[in-house]
């Protein structure tokens, strides 16, 4: 006989993302699109292109997952209800008289609520991806991790492709050296849900969904409230990195020190501060 | 009992594109390729690369449609007859002694005939795409529109990818703000054939094929004869844009006016003329 | 009753590539990755990105073949044994204390042995690709050639895509005018194995595998020993080119001569020497 707590968690794991959580996800994604330079101009001059970009932002993870499993990437267009919902949100955000939606979104409680609900959808996408990949490859735990990751945070790759085609993608030099926070948190979740699915993690799926969701929502809200980019598991990440890849990191940093000495200026001291403020700015504007 | 007119239209809708209309399509596509700077050099130094580019131009729409429906993109290579035909046309165009084919193609009646026949193939491709997508997703009218559009005018996207890989793609700043005329006309056709297929348009398929084909052939020939880029449905397009997206367009144009005033010169008056002549030049050289 | 020679060749054709030949292939691929500028830095700062790039180098041909046949590109991740083997080799190469593996690899006999064994895997990949494509398209000999080619030498295309996304791909102006030696040799092999499969070449599969393997291993080792880029079948290639595409080549070279005269300097004489030494350098560093 299950306790009320178990029943609560079980009901939580059976919550449908449609329509409210999906609305929050579409809202955050399209608002991030609107804030990009030139997005409003594109919406006026070529609404179809703007609509398509918005759909890629809203359904990007699913599209990437389809591509990786050789399923039709256009499959998301067959889900008429969700397409209609996302299209309505795009239309309201870009063409609402007096920009009412954007003004309402500028209040922080609204942003926090929407961001929190969007994080909830991340859990559901990871779980969906892991389960779906398992139907293709029974023991393919790497495939399950990859598909869970693609569904949960793969939208940015689709966005990158689209910007590459448009010629609007400015790759910054160190982009590929740092994984974004959403990427890391989604990878962690994908690994945990895969090991739970293959019975290597002794926790039930609904419990894991609950605790993982609480964790990512809490950290996201805390990061937005404190305007900080400090990742909660950064110390563990550094320790793991040193254990596995430690000697090369030490030799790499010593190589860097000798480069700095050779340059002869104190530029290395000012660089971390500039880098930290850049990261903070990116975190507020970027979303996946 | 059908009238002779009905029988005529029915026979027209059952015409096979092979071989004459396909020849016209391949001819126009490969001639457009030959006119690109450096194409002849590539054909001499690396005939395989030139041949592959020509095949992408000839079969690009089908390839894109396969990618979007997760079918083997290489499937077009299994159709040995069409590949042989397209390859022969490529060979004759690039390696014919004294450039006989190009000299014959330089006569306007030949160009008009080939362009007209190529437009006929567009109808057949759209219809094929819509029907094929319907076999995948019964009520997926968005998928049907997308696949019809991809088959009819998607070759340019495949060409863009190829140029992106080669590094020869120069994206012009406003490219994504304007859809080309072939894109618009194909989208319109795809929408109409999809609604006819889902019984939302009260017209038989062969009638729609006939009238749509007459329309696109007539407009294409008229545009080539008058050397103009005026799109026949531009007024309707503008009106629809103002109704659906009107307020933002007005605010966008007023934002532009204030920008021009701030710049202090009369450059805004000269820009439309330069833009119109650029468009005209593009329409003659570009083809899909 | 088969002769001992036939039995020997038959046993050779049934040799499994796992584990030793696969190890050689992964070793050569990852060593080539390590020698690229910045690769060590990426491995220290973002080991996951470095690992993924290494996997693309090791399994690139199979991934491309999957994409072209609309099979899941992630399928290689389901082969846990090979992934574990390739990952171990990546880890040892990048993070071995005192760079022991790289120091051992710097001896020429080790490089020759590894390169030779890698060439053996090329044959197996081509044969696998041709057979696999035949299961899809019975008479599609072009598809069979393309898939055999993709499996045997397609890794470079996947690498190019990856560098394109990262923004580290510097396309040199004449890249698309010259096919690399591995591309040419793989295409030749793919054509031969396809015609053997369709019974157009009167030789048994195991004999063709043996002689083709001997040929590509011998030429590869000879090119590494003599530090030369002279392709053994270049005269036949030139002759075939002149027969099929000859008149245009003559007119193209005469067009070039008139360009050189117009420029007024003797730069055309110095260019071939510089070009030859560039090619030699590229052949030693590039691998597929």
What gap, in angstroms, lies between the N and C termini of chain A? 40 Å
What percentage of amino acids of chain A are in beta strands?
under 5%
Catalogue the unreliable spans of chain A.
248-286
Radius of gyration of chain A, in angstroms, nearest whole number = 21 Å
Total of DSSP H or I helical runs spanning 4+ residues of chain A: 13
Mean pLDDT of chain A: 82
Principal-axes geometry of chain A comes out as globular
Question: Helices and strands of chain A, in N-to-C order?
Answer: HHHHHHHHHHHHH
What assembly state would you assign to the polypeptide chains in this entry?
A: homotrimer
Largest sheet geometry of chain A:
none
Report the largest inter-chain contact.
Answer: A-B, 28 and 30 residues
Class from helix and strand fractions of chain A: mainly alpha
Number of beta strands of chain A: 0
Q: Helical proportion of chain A? A: over 70%
């Amino acid at each position: 006989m299950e306790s009320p707590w178990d029943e609560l968690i079980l009901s939580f794991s059976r919550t449908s993302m449609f329509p409210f959580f999906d609305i929050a996800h579409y809202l955050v994604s399209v608002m991030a699109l609107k804030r990009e330079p030139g997005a409003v101009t594109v919406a006026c001059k070529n609404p179809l292109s703007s609509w398509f970009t918005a759909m890629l932002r809203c359904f990007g993870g699913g599209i990437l997952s389809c591509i990786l499993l050789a399923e039709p990437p256009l499959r998301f267009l067959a889900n008429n209800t969700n397409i209609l919902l996302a299209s309505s949100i795009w239309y309201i955000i870009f063409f609402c008289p007096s920009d009412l939606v954007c003004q309402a979104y500028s209040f922080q409680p609204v942003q926090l609520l929407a961001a929190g609900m969007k994080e909830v959808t991340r859990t559901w996408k990871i779980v969906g991806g892991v389960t779906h990949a398992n139907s293709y490859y029974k023991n393919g735990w790497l495939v399950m991790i990859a598909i869970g990751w693609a569904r949960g945070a793969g939208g940015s790759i689709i966005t990158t492709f689209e910007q590459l085609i448009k010629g609007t993608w400015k790759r910054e030099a160190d982009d590929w050296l740092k994984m974004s926070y959403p990427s890391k948190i989604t990878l962690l979740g994908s690994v945990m849900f895969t090991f739970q699915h293959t019975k290597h993690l002794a926790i039930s799926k609904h419990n894991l969904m609950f605790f993982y969701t609480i964790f990512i929502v809490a950290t996201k809200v805390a990061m937005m409230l404190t305007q900080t980019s400090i990742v909660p598991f950064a110390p563990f990440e550094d320790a793991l990195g040193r254990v596995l890849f430690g000697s090369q990191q030490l030799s790499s940093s010593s190589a860097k020190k000798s480069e700095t000495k050779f340059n002869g200026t104190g530029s290395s001291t000012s660089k971390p501060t500039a880098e930290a403020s850049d990261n903070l700015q990116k975190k507020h504007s970027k979303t996946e």
